[in-house]
């Protein structure tokens, strides 16, 4: 089982990130669970979700010791870094997190300038997708093509397929940044 917590400000695509991950898992026959949590104000408040992807049964939606922590801001790191599994991955949006910040020494920290990379490909709302590209490359929890297919299908199902070319560019930017 892979346990992931995605966290950041509302409006950064945190809950959507979790949904894309579980859709990718379901597309390859895995059992999945998505458990969202967000403040009363969607934009600007805090948001996070617990994601589980497993070949076996999933007993609880809550991640006690996640393998992967996907963070888009400093408060997300503050809140969840201490529960990240030893040897786990911490993905950091280095565009807005202090470059001198200290991290635990028993985890793998992957810093990606998601805001800059998303802007560079002309997809300013795609910072989360940039980070997903980095996550997929660093962890190999999905094959690149599997994830891109699932991501595009997710947006097609939402009636937003016109964004797929820019979303794929954002994904590739993050994937190539690792």
UniProtKB/TrEMBL annotation:
Ranges of residues in domain Pyruvate/ketoisovalerate oxidoreductase catalytic: 10-176
Pfam families, per database record: POR (PF01558)
Protein name (Swiss-Prot/TrEMBL): Oxidoreductase
Leader peptide range in chain numbering: none
Gene3D superfamilies: Pyruvate-ferredoxin oxidoreductase, PFOR, domain III
Superkingdom of the source species: Bacteria
InterPro entries assigned: 2-oxoglutarate_synth_KorC, PorC_KorC, Pyrv/ketoisovalerate_OxRed_cat, Pyrv_flavodox_OxRed_cen
Record NCBIfam families: PorC_KorC
Keyword Oxidoreductase: yes
Keywords: Oxidoreductase
Annotated GO MF terms: oxidoreductase activity, acting on the aldehyde or oxo group of donors, iron-sulfur protein as acceptor
């Amino acid at each position: 089982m892979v346990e992931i917590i995605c966290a950041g400000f509302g409006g950064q695509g945190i809950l959507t990130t979790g949904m894309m991950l579980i859709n990718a898992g379901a597309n390859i026959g895995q059992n999945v669970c998505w458990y969202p949590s967000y403040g009363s104000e969607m934009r600007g408040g805090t948001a996070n979700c617990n994601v589980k992807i497993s070949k076996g049964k999933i007993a609880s939606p809550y991640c006690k010791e996640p393998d992967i922590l996907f963070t888009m801001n400093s408060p997300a790191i503050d809140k969840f870094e201490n529960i990240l599994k030893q040897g786990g991955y911490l993905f950091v949006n280095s565009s807005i997190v202090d470059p001198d910040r200290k991290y635990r020494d028993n985890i793998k920290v992957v810093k990606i300038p998601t805001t800059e990379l998303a802007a560079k490909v002309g997809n300013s709302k795609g910072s989360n997708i940039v980070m997903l590209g980095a996550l997929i490359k660093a962890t190999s929890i999905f094959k690149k093509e599997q994830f891109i297919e699932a991501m595009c299908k997710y947006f097609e199902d939402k009636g937003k397929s016109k964004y797929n070319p820019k979303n794929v560019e954002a994904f590739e930017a993050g994937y190539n940044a690792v």
